[in-house]
Specification:
The complex is a heterodimer of chains A (261) and B (265). Chain A is an all-alpha fold and 261 residues long. Chain A has one domain (2-258). Chain A is built from eleven helices and no strands. Chain B is mainly alpha-helical and 265 residues long. Chain B has one domain. In chain B, α2 (28-53) packs antiparallel against α3. Classes of the chains: A mainly alpha (261), B mainly alpha (265). The interface between A and B is large, with 44 and 41 residues.
């Protein structure tokens, strides 16, 4: 485990090296958030109401999904994994006592830790204008749901990246899954205001755990009693995706031919 | 630039388009999936607009059909930018990989070469989808050929503004080698123009998004012209902004080029 702790620290250091990158991504999130706040303000100011969301709950929804997208979002893992396979870097993992999945996971985790303080500025600003009273039990469930979100998100995009073993170019698959995740995770729009068809479809897919479930836990749309059902469903998805990624890795490594390594 | 030079540049562009298409078609399955992913991405904004308008009947005076016009106008511009220059990915890539060494020695304008370095043919789907959406709402707007002509003119200006804005941001690649965040920044900002910019009720913000980052002139203003007919002041500002942004971004690119140090040699 000590070696993964080192990888985790290297992940943080790597993010510090590209701090301008992190700052620009943070700035992108702020601009998008300001725009969305204006959109909802203009709708609510003219008397409109979106679903059963109040203005504060809709803004808090986008503040929190922005937090999840910026800090714990792992869509880039599919591109990262693909690049490592295509460039022949995988050969290193066949020779060294490092687990490929473990290395990528702890590198990504290090990057997440570095980004959290950035976004806390936005969360604290929001809490100043829209103060909430939190139940500690809800915060505990929120943290659990974020851990489930990280694991499911990581395993989905890691598995998508592993498709590079089987395809000459998986650029399209990576892009497709990114956009599908945007829609069915609730990052783009709350799932419960989508048309019925999309809502039912989203319920069958694991993407809802990426954003909609964690945000619904903290804004009270998922009660602590119902949370157990979601947590069990999330765990089942984690186990299934983990086994899928292991199968893709084991079969992929047989097909693998190192080109650049 | 004489007519002969224009013809040469056009031929080079055609050749690059052909090369990009051949590259894509060499991985057919990937190309089909990419086309599908573009369709999914395009449908996101339509689902968003549909979902919002199932609860309200207008956003800052824009009805459902009018909001669709803005989204469709953005689709056309975004599609054209990707299909002709792949969001200027050639700027960052050629700097990072040191490939710019080869380009600056060619007897062709370097900005032109890096702009057309890659083209994504699957993104013509966005353009076609945008045109189809506009044609479906023709009966809901005060359509006339004159409005359409000025709409096309403003879309042309939008293309110049978007191109120049991306070029301006990508030019920072001369100093920031890891340019993933520059792509993200450009995409996050420009994507906001698919919503009506009239939502900004604070005057200072509205001026900011009409001049410094002219989101209003990317899709909202062209849609306004198509719906309400030509307004001379809007057309004048649109042409002026396109000119200022193009000249400004070119000057900044040439300034950045002077600071280029090869990554490979």
């Amino acid at each position: 485990m000590k070696k993964y702790w080192t990888i985790f620290k290297l992940g943080i250091q790597n993010s510090v090296v590209y701090r301008m990158d992190t700052f620009l991504m943070f700035f992108s999130q702020i601009i998008s958030l300001i725009f969305l706040i204006y959109l909802w303000l203009s709708i609510y100011n003219q008397g409109g109401v979106i679903g059963d969301y109040s203005l504060a709950s809709l803004i808090s929804y986008y503040v929190l999904t922005g937090f999840l997208a910026f800090t714990v979002g792992t869509q880039f893992v599919s591109w990262m994994t693909s690049d490592m396979i295509m460039n022949g870097e995988v050969s290193n993992y066949l020779l060294k006592p490092f687990n490929f999945l473990g290395d990528i996971f702890f590198t990504v985790l290090g990057g997440m830790v570095y980004k959290i303080p950035f976004y806390l500025i936005i969360v604290l600003t929001f809490l100043y204008f829209f103060p909430f009273s939190f139940d500690f039990r809800v915060i505990f469930y929120f943290v659990i749901s974020i851990i489930i979100s990280i694991l499911i998100s990581f395993l989905i995009f890691y598995s998508v990246g592993l498709s590079s073993f089987y395809l000459e170019s998986n650029f399209g698959i990576n892009a497709l899954f990114s956009w599908i995740a945007q829609l069915f995770s609730g990052m783009f729009i709350p799932l419960d205001i989508l048309p019925e068809f999309f809502l039912k479809l989203a319920d069958f897919l694991p993407f809802k755990f990426l954003a909609f479930v964690p945000v619904s836990v903290i804004n009270g749309r998922i009660s602590p009693e119902d949370f157990y059902i979601y947590a069990i469903e999330g765990l089942i998805w984690i186990i299934m995706l983990f086994y899928l990624s292991q199968i893709l890795w084991k079969r992929g490594i047989i097909k693998y031919e190192s080109y650049g390594g | 630039m004489n007519l002969m030079a224009v013809k040469t540049y056009f031929k080079i562009w055609l050749l690059q388009v052909k090369n990009s298409l051949m590259q894509r078609m060499s991985y057919r399955f990937n190309f089909v999936v990419l086309c599908f992913s573009v369709l999914v991405q395009t449908s996101l904004i339509l689902i968003f607009v549909k979902a919002i308008f199932s609860f309200i009947d207008n956003i800052s005076g824009w009805s459902y059909e009018h909001a669709l016009l803005i989204a469709a106008s953005f689709m056309i511009i975004e599609g054209l930018i990707w299909a002709t220059s792949a969001y200027l990915s050639g700027v960052g890539d050629s700097i990072r990989r040191g490939a710019l060494d080869q380009l600056i020695t060619k007897p062709v304008d370097t900005q032109f070469l890096v702009s057309i370095w890659r083209a994504d043919p699957e993104d013509w789907i966005r353009v076609v989808t945008g045109i189809i959406i506009i044609s479906t709402v023709f009966d809901k707007i005060n359509f006339s050929i004159l409005n359409l002509l000025f709409y096309v003119l403003l879309l042309f200006n939008s293309y110049i503004i978007v191109y120049s804005f991306i070029l301006f941001l990508k030019t920072f690649s001369f100093w920031i080698i890891n340019n993933y965040s520059l792509n993200m920044l450009a995409d996050h900002i420009l994507r906001l123009s698919q919503y009506p910019t009239d939502i900004f009720f604070h005057k200072i913000i509205r001026i900011f998004f009409s001049t410094v980052i002219p989101l209003a002139f990317i899709a909202t203003m062209p849609a306004k012209i198509l719906i309400h007919g030509p307004k001379l002041d809007l057309i004048f500002y649109s042409c002026l902004l396109a000119f200022v942004f193009f000249v400004g971004s070119r000057k900044f690119f040439l300034y950045g080029l002077k600071h280029y140090s090869s990554a490979s040699s």
